[in-house]
Amino acid sequence: MAKYLFRVICLLSALTLLYPSVSPAKTAKPVIAVFNFETANANDYLGPVTARYLMTALAYLGKYKVIEPEKIEKVLEGAGIDEGEAIETGTAATLGKKLGAMVACRGKVTKTGNKYTITVDFISTANAAVITSNSANVTGEANLSKGIDRIVGLAKD
Predict the structure, then answer these.
(1) 2-14+30-152 maps to CATH 3.40.50.300
(2) Which conformational region is residue 145 in: left (phi greater than 0), alpha (psi within -120 to 50 degrees), or beta?
(3) Which helix (H) or strand (E) holds 73?
């Protein structure tokens, strides 16, 4: 629990440092683009499903504006990138910037036996630097959303 809390604090601190507020009343929420996750040894459909879990969790926090998946699909299409294709850090930053995002997220779902590891990279669209990278392990496909909740700090375990 402390490990996940530390990661969330690091993520929020990094976002605050990158995008400090000038005036709380006038500050817009940071915009985040979440790209579909790649999969390794897992069913292909788990990449988009897990990315959608992340979008939902970030929106639930109420601190971010999450770009709609339809807009992301159009930018990927325009760049000639297949929706299920792995996206490199620089590409995620460039495409995220085109979408007006301050942060781009990419991730991976890896299956080993009945255990899944979810890894999420939060990337600055200003300089393509990885702000933070968080991961969570869960047992069973049905618990992927719990792993995302741990990554963004919604989990209470």
Answers:
(1) no
(2) alpha
(3) helix 69-78
